[in-house]
Specification:
8-stranded parallel barrel; binds 3-methyl-2-oxobutanoic acid; alpha/beta; single chain
């Protein structure tokens, strides 16, 4: 059964914790759906993780739609959440038009990075019936914001508390807390009535979100906020190296990998070749 925003909301009280992973393509979407991950996030991190851009501000709405559609095709059960890219959110009108494009492409909801100027955008999109997940703390789309933990001093912690309350009031059904100290994320989680989903925000959020490449060990870098559950980069490289070696040494393909051909067909072809050579 498809997971709805109301079902996610109910998990704040009833548990279990919400699980969210980034998902950028069809095969990943099929596997995550099979594993029953609650939310597949088509994050704008697709820009740096998949498309090779220098930063997420380069991601276009067309990039998001292309990847979103492949994820939607592979998903039956997970809630598909799609990031609104930086370029698609210049004004509230802009944000709404682009949120509608994502909803038409199959997104069950959109995520909007939420510094102060985003509150009106959230309420505009929500008022048109499109579920919005807010995102506060470290927000990579915010120009000039240094990568790092947010809310360690009284001023920024107060600002983030106010922002989280404003997002809730504007109608966000869920909120991502990125790189926030655990004690602050716990306080926000207790204060808000919508579920909090943390990344680098500690143990007390209502759910967790991770970048799929980080937990699989495809990302070679080690992040404090991530746990590598596999070493896929190493497995990947071993497999490719073995393929290269086998091909060059004649060990691949073998008899098991070939199609058979009736004798009369090959005899006919050989006869044709022979006749052509001697004509
Ligand atoms: O785009 C992304 O990967 C995200 C997560 C880090 C929450 O927004």
């Amino acid at each position: 059964m498809k997971i709805t925003k109301d079902a996610l909301g109910a998990r704040k009280k009833s548990g279990p914790k919400i699980t969210m992973l980034t998902s950028y393509d069809y095969p990943t979407a099929c596997l995550l759906d099979e594993c029953n991950v609650d939310v597949q996030l088509v994050g704008d991190s697709v820009g740096t993780n998949i498309l090779g851009y220098d930063d997420v501000s380069q991601v276009t709405i067309q990039d998001m739609i292309h990847h979103l559609k492949s994820v939607v095709r592979g998903t039956k059960k997970s809630f598909v959440l799609c990031d609104m890219p930086f370029k698609a959110c210049r004004t509230s009108k802009d944000t709404l038009e682009n949120a509608k494009l994502l909803a038409d492409a199959g997104a069950d909801g959109v995520k909007i990075e939420s510094e102060k100027c985003a509150i009106e955008k959230i309420s505009t999109v929500v008022s048109e019936g499109i579920p919005v997940c807010a995102h506060i703390g470290y927000t990579p789309q915010t120009p000039g914001l240094k990568v790092g933990v947010q809310g360690k001093d009284i001023q920024r912690a107060t600002e983030l508390l106010q922002l989280s309350k404003q997002c809730e009031k504007a109608g966000a059904f869920m909120i991502v807390l990125e790189l926030i100290p655990e004690r602050l994320a716990k306080a926000f989680t207790e204060e808000l009535s919508i579920p909090t989903v943390g990344i680098g925000a500690g143990r007390y959020c209502d759910g967790q979100v991770q970048v799929i490449l980080d937990i699989l060990g495809i990302t070679e870098k080690d992040f404090r906020h991530a746990k590598k559950y596999a070493q896929v980069a190493a497995t990947y490289k071993d497999a490719v190296s073995s393929y290269i070696k086998d091909t060059q040494n004649g060990y691949f393909p073998t008899e098991n990998h070939i199609a058979s051909l009736p004798d009369d067909v090959i005899e006919h072809i050989q006869k044709l070749i022979h006749e052509k050579k001697h004509s």
